[in-house]
Amino acid sequence: MKRKPWISLFLILLNEHYGLSKKRYFYFEKKQRLWEFALIPIVIVAMVASLAPLYRIIMTGMLEQYTMMGMEALFLSNAYMLAGIFGFFLGIFMIVSTFFFSKDMNLLSTLPMKPWQIISAKTCVVLMDQMIISLALLLPPLIYFGVSTNASPLYWVSAVVVFLCSQIFPIAISMIVILPLAHKIRFNRYKDFMVFFLATVVVIAVLAFQYVMMQSAGTYETTEAMLEAMANPELLVNRISMVYPPAFLATKALTAPAIQGLGWLLIFLGAHIGLFLILLGFGNRFYLQVYSDLQEKYAQRSVLKEGELSLRFGAQKPPITALWQREWRYFLREPSFAFNGLGAVVIFPILILVMAAAGSRGSNEIRALTEMIHEFSQFTVPIGILLGTLPGAMNSLSSSLFSREGKMLKELRVLPFTPIQILKVKLAQILSLSMIGPIMTGVAMYILFRINFGEILAIVFGSAVCMTFLNLVQVVIDAIRPVLDWDNPHKAMKANLNVAFSIPIIFGFCFGLGFLGFLLRDVLPPMGMTAILFLVGIFGSWITWPAVVKRTTALFARDQ
Amino acid sequence: MVELNGLNKVYAGSVHAVKDVSLQVQKGEIFGFLGPNGAGKSTTIKMIVGLLKPTNGIVRINGVDLATDPISAKKEIGYIADEPLVMEKVTGAEYLNFIADVFGVSAKARTDRVTRLLQHFKLTNAVRDPISTYSHGMRQKIALIGALIHNPRLWILDEPIVGLDPESAFVLKQMMRRHADSGNTVFFSTHVMEIAEKICDRIGIIHRGSLQFVGSVDELRKARGDKSLEKLFFEVTDSETQTMDFSFLDSAE
């Protein structure tokens, strides 16, 4: 069957990205790993079922509060803005990997296709991926708002358009910023590292900008100023336009009366189409040139100095040290791993630190939140342990422990080490990285609650043992079915199903135990809760370890 | 026809990977591009197919300037990279259909051509399976079929024999000869001197980015003496192979 080139390109990129043909072949033709096929919907249903009630409570509370203040439009603008910010943060590395370091470009750039065709097809594939963010953060509020307010048919039409366009802005802006910068700066060495670095700088700049704007938009120096804002909800929505312009347009399209709403919807749609066209224009101008620059493999070799070889090869290290160094080198020299791994470990504690720093003079919401935590100040240690466990465990490092090896797992298998030696080195590496989470949480809890040194230690060590348990569980998941056939390193971490499987386990552990603690707050003292968390961590690690060993040994014994 | 005129590639402003390469490969010709590792072969080939942009110089494909009209130029080329450039998670059939769609090959033409090529390379029964299940040689073959599916007039093959079994290598060599004899052009790189000697009408030897010799093997012998192509190649590229001392391999530790 003959297809138009663009459609054919889009379909094959989609197929390749999600491995559809490969999955169909293994599931339905070879009848292999059918359990995995059955497990995916079960995990999705379990995630939705476990999070939906909590989500509903939050949405109900928020909408009721906003409605009481006559600011129900903010409910929608907040959801849209949140989906956009998450899209920006999670999407930028995906964009960089897909556009600049995906192997398929070696083929695509030799084909008679125009840059805009490649960019638009690839952007659509990235958008499909990003829509999961909007699916989780934007779609439920859109539906809940529509049902609660008995919205008109136009609202539902606008909601569909707003939902479908919600990830265009973050992706287009990321590309529009990165393309000319990467072209202009023309990195000489470590190009992949520099592009990821640039992407990180862009993300930090955007987050910083939004933080500053949120502060100015949400802080009122006097009670009069706050009352004035509440009396004029329009003013507040207008302030949002400064922070995230598409949220303003989306809110107007969804909440303005019929004809006006239609007008705003057309402006919203026009703005997104315009942005997409600008992206294609930038792409046509810069993309293939930037890609070509990045492909230049060369070695700026210079003549070795006398004795340099002896210096480089003159020291012998123990084999385990060599393995340990290999582990760190592979992690740090693959920018996608380094940025994703470190980002996941430090981002949550940084948020807590920012919250802690902003607690005294920040926005009303942050002040209210810190005051709420202060109400449970006697439970600081158990709360801190659970807070520290979250970044320590949810870092994509352990759930991609073997996946990150990819085809290099074969190299690992032929080295003269036992699987257990390899496992211990890998675990030591990820646990030392993961410890950043508990340590930074301990610091943040000190800033917030002025806890004593003993309490800080209890938080750090308590988080460490719970984190170790959860990391071991994730290693088991990855050892059962590691994703080894990736061509784009990003897929080993962010687009790895094992990482997705781990999320409900970690959330279930932290929020489940947190909720249990909340229920038992009158009968169980803080010390008792702390002791139980320590015991859960230690006992959990102890019973999980044999499974980790068994699965790792089986993985290394498997035919590949 | 391939025409390279004053082609240069300078990496990072200082590493001169390809220096003033000028040559013409005519229709009806098989041209072998030889050179040691790192000599500039792959860089030159990547500039011909549009993967790398020349620092300066012109690449013309059948008279079309690659820089000014890349789409028309690329339509003339069937390219095989030194590593098979195929998407791994799709099936062989999906990959070939994609390439055929991009080059606008009609349904009938692609069916006829793919059927023959799959038979020649003994890949018919694997075409429904994902490419990730293929061996290296099979991937090389599917990449070859993809490169030839639109019947390009110019074949650019970067070490195409690597990974092929003897039968497939023989089939490919026959196809290259036939393609050139039908008035088309084959430009390929290889490290196997016997193949270059047997099937090339002319060869080019590149060393440290510069073309050291362009002509037939007979012309090279006339200039340098009646020796094997391997020895002539070592001479042209200043190889120290003949004087190397391997006795260190016998040491105890």
Whole-number mean pLDDT of chain A: 81
Name the average pLDDT of chain B.
Answer: 89
Structural class of chain A: mainly alpha
Strand order in the largest sheet of chain B: 6-7-8-3-9-10
Structural class of chain B: alpha/beta
Describe the structure in your own words:
Chain A contains 26 helices and no strands. Chain A is 79% helix and 0% strand. In chain A, 38% of the residues are buried. The mean pLDDT of chain A is 81. Chain A starts with a helix and ends with a helix. Chain A has 560 residues and is mainly α. Chain B is α/β, with parallel strands linked by helices and 253 residues long. Chain B has a domain of 68 residues. Chain B contains nine helices and ten strands. In chain B, the strands form two sheets. A six-stranded mixed β-sheet of chain B has the order 6-7-8-3-9-10, sandwiched between helices. A four-stranded antiparallel β-sheet of chain B has the order 2-1-4-5. In chain B, helix 6 links the parallel strand 7 and strand 8. In chain B, helix 3 runs parallel beside helix 5. The radius of gyration of chain B is 19 Å and the shape is globular.
Give the tags:
heterodimer; A: 560 residues; mainly alpha; 26 helices; 79% helix; globular; B: 253 residues; alpha/beta; four-stranded antiparallel β-sheet; 36% helix
